[in-house]
C-alpha cells in the first residue's frame, strides 16, 4: 500500500469518526479533540470537500436535536421535583398564556412630499462626508 493511500485511508477514518462524534456532541472543538485532529484541519477539509461539509452540517443539526432532547429530559426531571424555575421556564416557552408579552400601539404615517432645500443640503453634505463626493458632483452637473 502506498503512503498516499495510507494517509487517505486514515483521513477518511478520522472524517467518519468526526461526523459521528458531532452527532453526540455538536461542538466542533470537542469533536476535534475526541478524534485527534485540529479545527484548522477540519476547516480545510470543509473548504476542499463540499459533500463532506454538508455531512458535517447535517451531523451538527442532528447533534443539536439530540442535546435538546437531553436538556428537555433534564427539564422534565426538575419539573417533577417541583423546581419553580423549571416550571416557569417551561410555561413561558410552551404556553402563550404564560409567555412574556410586549404590547405596542401607535400609528404609521407616510408623507410623500418633496425635500426642502435644507434637507437636500444636508444630504449632499452627508454624501460628501461618506466619500461619495464624486457622486454628488456628477448629480450637481446633471442638474445644471
Structural class comes to mainly alpha
Largest sheet: none
Distance between the termini: 79 Å
Number of helices: 7
Tell me the strand percentage band. Answer: under 5%
Helix content: over 70%
Which residues sit in consecutive blocks of at least 5 with pLDDT less than 50?
A: none
Mean pLDDT: 88
Task: Report on this structure.
- This protein has 144 residues and is mostly helical.
- It has 7 helices and no strands.
- The protein folds into 2 domains: 6-95; 117-144, no CATH class.
- Helix 3 (39-48) crosses helix 4 and helix 6 packs antiparallel against helix 7.
- The chain starts with a helix and ends with a helix.
- The mean pLDDT is 88.
List the helices and strands and how they pair.
Elements lengths: L2 H22 L3 H8 L3 H10 L1 H31 L3 H11 L22 H13 L3 H11 L1
Helix pairs in contact: 1-2, 1-4, 3-4, 4-5, 6-7
Overview in brief:
This protein has seven helices and no strands. The chain is an all-alpha fold and 144 residues long. The chain folds into two domains: 90 residues; 28 residues, no CATH class.
Attribute tags:
mainly alpha; 7 helices; flat; 144 residues
Amino acid at each position: 500500500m502506498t503512503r498516499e493511500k495510507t494517509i487517505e485511508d486514515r483521513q477518511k477514518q478520522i472524517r467518519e469518526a468526526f461526523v459521528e462524534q458531532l452527532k453526540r456532541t455538536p461542538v466542533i472543538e470537542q469533536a476535534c479533540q475526541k478524534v485527534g485532529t485540529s479545527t484548522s484541519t477540519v476547516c480545510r477539509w470543509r473548504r476542499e470537500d463540499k459533500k463532506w461539509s454538508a455531512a458535517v452540517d447535517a451531523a451538527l443539526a442532528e447533534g443539536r436535536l439530540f442535546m435538546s432532547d437531553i436538556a428537555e429530559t433534564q427539564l422534565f426531571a426538575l419539573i417533577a421535583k417541583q423546581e419553580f424555575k423549571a416550571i416557569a421556564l417551561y410555561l413561558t416557552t410552551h404556553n402563550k398564556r404564560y409567555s412574556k408579552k410586549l404590547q405596542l400601539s401607535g400609528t404609521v404615517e407616510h408623507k410623500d412630499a418633496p425635500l426642502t432645500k435644507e434637507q437636500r443640503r444636508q444630504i449632499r453634505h452627508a454624501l460628501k462626508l461618506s466619500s461619495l463626493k464624486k457622486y454628488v458632483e456628477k448629480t450637481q452637473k446633471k442638474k445644471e
